[in-house]
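Worked example 2:
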Amino acid sequence: AREIDKIALIAPSATVNVIRNYNVAEKRRLTLPDRAIGILRCANPNCISNVREPIESTFVVRSKNPLRVVCKYCDRELEDIVAHIL
């Protein structure tokens, strides 16, 4: 599911084809998750999710068009989502 969420963050209107026995079995339209957990790195070096703490990064999708995601812990908005994918 994390891989699908990563694709949705980069290309929110993408379609994923499910292949079975070398044939397209189904096509799924991606939807943006409400939260991105453990798939983005916060741009704030002082954020608790970047320090050596056992905390997974969590981002909240504030807006889908334009895409705006904000860190749950330090409230920093990510400007370049692709550069911060784990």
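The radius of gyration is 15 Å. The chain has one domain: 2-84.
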